Amino acid sequence: xxxxxxxxxxxNYHVETISMVKRLKYLQAILICCxxxxxxSACQDGIHYTEYKQLPHKQWDRHDTLVYHIxxxxxxxxxxxxxxxxxxxxxxxxxxxxxxxxxxxxLIAATxxxxxxxxxxxxxxxxxxxxxxxxxxxxxxxxxKTYTLYITHSMRLNPLDGIPxxxxxxxx
Length: 172
Hints:
Layout: H1 9-43, E1 47-54, E2 59-60, E3 66-70, E4 77-87, E5 95-104, E6 107-117, E7 130-133, E8 137-141, E9 147-153, E10 160-161, E11 165-171
Antiparallel strand pairs: 1-11, 2-10, 3-9, 4-7, 4-8, 4-11, 5-6, 5-9
């Protein structure tokens, strides 16, 4: 290692510059960690559970019951259930009626009708997938209980084409 001369200002400047760069890198790492924590906590605020399930053949048959296992909560909580339907170019419905059955320990805790109403402007005409969300429906979950949600559609038309995925959102 090079010996520095305390009387030489150029040597002192070099040592101070290296230590300043190390401090800045350390502060930068701390800021990046804090930013990551802030973004993670902000994005998950209020969301308890969300999951999408793939449908066979990109269509929803009346006999395709979608099952979602909801993890237990620490406290009794009122949440809102939102149904999400991901559609493609074959989707041409203005209203979709579905039924969500909430079970706890194999007993029916609630039956929730869910309706998605779409105006003509929200029906996609491209080949890309589009998400449609229902209005939130209130549900109450008790603490330390495992719930299962069963979803089926109640439409006269069967099967419903152009629906590759269906998901749920449980949020405060």
